[in-house]
Amino acid sequence: MKGRYYITTAIAYPNGVPHIGHAYEAIATDAIARFQRLDGYDVLFLTGTDEHGIKMLQTAQREGLTPAELVARNVPRFQAMVERFDISNDDFIRTTEARHKQACTELWQRMAAAGDIYLSKYSGWYSVRDEAYYAEEETTVREDGVRIGPQGTPVEWTEEESYFFRLSKYTEPLLNYYNEHPDFILPEARRNEVVSFVKGGLQDLSISRTTFDWGIPVPGDPDHIMYVWVDALNNYVTATGLLNGGGPREAYWPADLHVIGKDITRFHAVYWPAFLMSAGLPVPKRVFGHGFLFNKGEKMSKSVGNVVDPFALADAYGVDAVRYFFLREVPFGQDGSYTPEAIVNRTNADLANDLGNLAQRSLSFVAKNCEGRVPAPGAFSEADATLLAAADAMIEAAREAMKTQQIHTVLATVWAVVADANRYFAGEAPWALKKTDPERMGTVLYVTAEVIRQVAIMAQPFVPRGAAKLLDLVGVAADARGFDRLGPAGRLTPGAALPAPEPVFPRYVEPDAPAKGT
Ligand code: ME8
Predict the structure, then answer these.
(1) Fewest CB atoms within 10 A around its CB: which of 33, 104, 259, 395?
(2) Which protein residue has the closest C-alpha to ligand 1 atom 23?
């Protein structure tokens, strides 16, 4: 093992059903988690749901439910989504669990013991949709007279007794941390926003509410409920057991990577490290703020009626295709747009044609002409050596890109080799060699199958189902699929028997009656 790697998604508000933004975040985080596991790390991968707060309470009231009933109804949909998309999480945390209450109580007590919590009165603007406090100068008044915060959501004037966290005390320590860890916040644009926000000076933060009781009570003063973001952020520590008396997972803290959407960068890159510094706990190594997905370029909203159901996408195109599309098409960190045509075009071209067809054609040829066994290669030509070298080099380029979570670059690297392999296969024309030079034919088929092996190993984090099938077809044992088997170390063994080839990535064809609703 190379060491531990702790990676998390944000935890979603289960105030409705999961949308494609939630699926996207889970898929991207899963790809990174799988990549690290295959690369020899001992990975802990956490996802879950953020179940407290006023937003949840108000949604429940609107639907005539208690908040507990609302979460009992909605959380299983989030768990089902995680399963549907082959997410390989090790744990699913719910902030209503007893372990979490215990960990949050401990966090609060540590921050209080550090002298960082005091009782006062809050008066200012609060956005229920963002569950966020905003300074007056961050708000504007819309044409219709409604005052809104920086994310465009309505804010309401709030005045109540509240506990405060001495965030102002952490202005300098945070700026020092950003300075010493220039890659703490990625992408760089997000980092620059955070640094300039903190440089502007930090106000102490209201961290309790008294007007409702759906949340975790403040230790020693149960009339106060912890601010939902104190509770929510601490989920990452709860899952390690560190604040629950330790245990086998405690060494995973600090997290290596929090994958979140760009709208919640401030909570993760400012409040969270400050809470941890106060509680005497190490700060996470990286926060990556991914972009937003837009349906045909438009923001998804219930009122516009363009919210895409991730289950419907998986049913229509297949899980691998949806995963591949978002990871390949959207440079990780930037916003992305999607249309049904774009999904079909991209996945038919890359998965069905370039990789699927190459595997099907070459492996059927092996089945027919090499007795279904890995052919024995002769001496390698320059073309063979060049293609094998390109395949052998994928992992180093991929590791480099993954250091900064450039998932799309990893896929571009792998599919560049797929393109090389297609050109090679067409150029070497093994079907013509069959009569003129059978030994050369065997070499070409060997090289092609070996490149398919390496491409399939590399593709596992992104298209796990198709990659596993491809690896079955080239006869790679389950324990020989790690990245340590890439390159010359794991070359296919001539003479090894192969199963009968079958298509791996089906081509998407428009059903006669188009699926409704999405
Ligand atoms: O923010 N495209 O929960 P959430 C891409 N509970 N990502 C999107 C998106 C979109 N259209 N819409 C939302 C919360 N997201 C808090 C998090 S973490 C301690 C607490 C992302 O359900 C969003 O940026 O509103 C966030 O990372 C995640 O989905 C959950 O959003």
Answers:
(1) 395
(2) 261
Q: Which atom of ligand 1 is nearest to the CA of 13?
A: 22
Query: Which of 414, 378, 419, 377 lies closest to 399, judged by CA?
Result: 414
Tokens (6 digits) for 53: 């707060």
Does 326 contact ligand 1 (Cβ within 6 A)?
no
Q: 12 CA distance to ligand 1 centroid (A)?
A: 6
- Predicted structure pTM score: 0.96
Q: How far is the CA of 87 from the centre of ligand 1 (A)?
A: 17
Question: What are the start-end ranges of the H helices in 162-318?
Answer: 171-180, 188-199, 228-233, 235-238, 265-266, 272-279, 310-317
pLDDT in tens, 350-382: 999 999 999 999 999 999 999 999 999 999 999
Q: Tell me whether strands 132-134 and 91-94 are parallel, antiparallel or unpaired.
A: unpaired
H helical segments located in 39-170: 54-62, 67-84, 98-113
Complex confidence, ipTM: 0.99
Q: Which residue type does 294 have? A: F
| Domain architecture of the chain: domains with CATH | 4-111+205-290 (3.40.50.620), 117-200 (2.170.220.10), 295-347 (no CATH), 352-497 (1.10.730.10)
Can you tell me the distance from the alpha carbon of 182 to that of 188, in angstroms, rounded to the nearest whole number? 9
What are the φ and ψ backbone dihedral angles of 379, each rounded to 5 degrees? -65, 145
Q: What is the DSSP secondary structure assignment for residue 296, as one 8-state letter? A: T
Contact between residue 100 and residue 94 where contact means Cβ atoms under 8 Å apart:
yes
